[in-house]
Amino acid sequence: MSGRGVRTIGDVAQFVTSKNAGPFLLTLDIVFADEATYRTFKSVRPLDRHVIAGLYGIPETDVLKIIEFDPAYAIKVTLRRPLGSGALGETDVYGAQQHVPLMLHEIDWPEAR
Amino acid sequence: MAPTRDHMTVLAPEGMLGYGIPVRSMEEGLARNPDVLAVDAGSTDPGPYYLGAGVPYTSRRAVKRDLAMMLDAAHARRIPVLIGSAGGGGGRPHLEWLVNVYGEICRERGYRFRTATIHADIDKGWLKAKVARGQVTPLDLLDPLTGETIDAATRIVAQMGDEPFQKALDLGAEVVIAGRACDASVIAALPIRAGFDRALAIHMGKILECGGAAAYPRHGSDSLLGVIDRDSFTVEPPNPDKICSVASVAAHSLYERSDPYRLALPGGAIDLTATTFEQITPRAVRVRGTRFVPAPYTFKLEGVRRVGYRTITVAGTRDPVLISQLDAYLENVRNRVKEVYGTEGYRLLFHVYGRDGVMGRLETAKEIRSHELGFVIEVVADDPEASSAILALSRSAALHSTYPGRKAIAGNLAFPFSPSDLGAGEAFEFSVHHLVEVDDPLDLFPVEMIAI
């Protein structure tokens, strides 16, 4: 039987990245190294709009999409940017450093037998 | 229309003109006898400044070096060169800048290519008429476009599809230098013109437009080869030290996109729900099954407006007494500036590194745990002189204002530079990010044969 433990998403994923998707959206990608880890992650169902909104302190309505992309063993999360890229008061023109709350998010994880 | 031949080979020498084509990759790529060299030269990714100011974000020297490599190959092999989003922003000054670099290379080397330019600038009066007819819709949750927003815009461009490139080729162009263009369309243009499947050509274009980014290891700027045939295409890096894997190619579908299954372009979208990726050699991946879903012609508009003139200073503190009352300290600085300059005509912003300088409004960690903090103090004002004056006062107030328990009465901040105050010129923000409906894909994008 397998037990359960706690891991961060960064522990189990190969990549966790953020980037602009156009000037007004931010897109976060979680990419897994292999199909088994990807399937395990999907079976745990650790992410929904409520969780993502909490990680970034934004309304759930600003979490626009959570998409599973099987060909790349990847989960994509797209957010509305609080400010457009490069707007006054904005802090990350490329959107490339917004991944950490997702990377450090702790999830239940089935331990290896 | 059935393709006139079995296959066609496209070489994308790099993902961005001017990022440095690796010589060996270019040689290996050319050894595969490409039918065309196609490269993307622009993006909105570096932010709104470049489109607004009409300047490139790549260096002239680097662009000249890369473009000369491509033109040498085109001249020796008599194959066309297609360039999209010239000069980064793809507006008139950007395109003219690249044509200037191109002309210099041609003069130095005695090249006389038949050359076409394609402009992508949008006339404001025309666009207002489109708004009035209800043919402009916002993208990504923006507000509907108004005449005021159009008037306030410094520059507006639209992303062309593959059709203007085809027209330029029909006119006999050997080199096409285009303004703002869908990056995938630049690469897809020649295969589509030759009758290859539109969805596959565009999907191949979308992978090649970032050059070697779809190959592992993913570092540096590099080339990518695409070979399209009747029902599939294959991608492979010419650099022998890199490989395309199913994972590297599939993962590239995620890059800078909100939806990996669908990519909208003028005249329709490609749909990846039935796409398959197959490793056919240790270094090459074959892609099949991508479908095209036609739609009315809509073009993505990009525009920026000037919000003022920016001046900044960079400084830091190591003082725990100051750090413990940071908000009150910054408020004091703000109030001192308000006493002298009021509240109108400028914005004063503190970027605090060590607190929320990276994530801003998305930062949820409220506690400061750093022993030192970095500040970028920023003023954006209606004119350059006001910007400089208000930043100077903000800087001196930040250096000298007192706070309870202050020990360091000689000064609150460490400045790494003299001069401390740096003028950053005009500041812009994106103001137009909309779709406009157009009947003819060529209407907005005049193709002109030019003399070099």
Structure description:
The complex is a heterodimer of chains A (113) and B (452). The mean pLDDT of chain A is 94. With 113 residues, chain A is of the alpha+beta class. Chain A has helices spanning 9-12, 35-44, 49-56, 100-103; strands spanning 4-8, 15-20, 25-31, 63-69, 74-80, 106-110. Chain A is elongated and about 50 Å long. The longest helix of chain A is centred in the middle third of the chain and has 10 residues, at 35-44. Chain A is 23% helix and 33% strand. Chain A has a four-stranded antiparallel beta sheet. Chain A has a two-stranded antiparallel sheet with strand order 1-6. In chain A, a hairpin with a 4-residue loop joins strand 2 (15-20) and strand 3. Chain B is of the alpha+beta class and 452 residues long. Chain B has 13 helices and 19 strands. In chain B, a hairpin with a 2-residue loop joins strand 10 and strand 11 (268-271). In chain B, helix 8 (183-193) crosses helix 9 and helix 12 (326-341) packs across helix 13 (384-400). The mean pLDDT of chain B is 96. The interface between A and B is large, with 43 and 46 residues.
Write the layout of secondary structure elements.
The complex is a heterodimer of chains A (113) and B (452).
Chain A: E1 4-8, H1 9-12, E2 15-20, E3 25-31, H2 35-44, H3 49-56, E4 63-69, E5 74-80, H4 100-103, E6 106-110
Antiparallel strand pairs in A: 1-6, 2-3, 3-5, 4-5
Chain B: E1 8-12, H1 23-30, E2 36-42, H2 49-53, H3 60-77, E3 81-88, H4 92-109, E4 115-118, H5 124-132, E5 136-138, H6 147-152, E6 153-158, H7 163-170, E7 175-178, H8 183-193, H9 198-208, E8 224-228, E9 233-236, H10 246-252, E10 262-265, E11 268-271, E12 276-281, E13 284-288, E14 291-294, E15 298-317, H11 320-324, H12 326-341, E16 346-353, E17 373-381, H13 384-400, E18 421-437, E19 447-450
Parallel strand pairs in B: 1-2, 2-3, 3-7, 4-7
Antiparallel strand pairs in B: 1-8, 4-19, 5-18, 6-15, 8-9, 9-13, 10-11, 11-14, 12-13, 15-17, 15-18, 16-17
Helix pairs in contact in B: 3-4, 7-8, 8-9, 12-13
